[in-house]
Specification:
Length: about 210
Amino acid sequence: MNIPRIPSLDQLPPLAPLLSIPLMAAAAFLPACSPTRDVTRVDPNATIDVNQAFNDSDARRIYQGMVQDCLSRPWVDNFQRENGGRRPFVIVGELKNKTMSYILDSGMVTADIERELINSGRVRFVAAKGERDQIREERLQGQEWSRPETRKQLKAETGADLIMIGSIMEDAPRALSGRSGVQYYKANLQLIDIETNEKVWIGTQEIKKVWNTR
């Protein structure tokens, strides 16, 4: 009975050349299939709607409308008249995202509103809740490491007179076909007296978009 002889490893054909053939073919094929991407710089204030979702243009429209309305109302003059001409201190509270959009960043709105109100010279702001811990830690470290004449006093923060809170809501009705619809956003902001709970200003801005699938 003849038993077939198993070849030794050195007698087997080299694998590298055999494996390299399909790899080379795949490499030659990839460049032809790779997509190319063109990048064009545009004006940051340009409105570009990739889809009906909330975007930077919506945030800009909301904060500009809110600032204009806020500064045109009598609450600032009323506060100054009742407090010896002193400008009010405001703190930014929570702007709740009550929409289904996880990419909607409320900071896109509140940071711009805070900036514009500060730059108006009529309102002052104190650090918000998410900012205070870092500032307090720096102040505490300074008690140990800073020169005595440059150390900042503990427990000497300025308290806010008013807190700004609000929400952004949406409504998104669609046609039965699902190929068209309306995307509606409504932003509400309030300024509330921290001591008395009195609401001194309420602002509202709306965004509505109609979309169609072709």
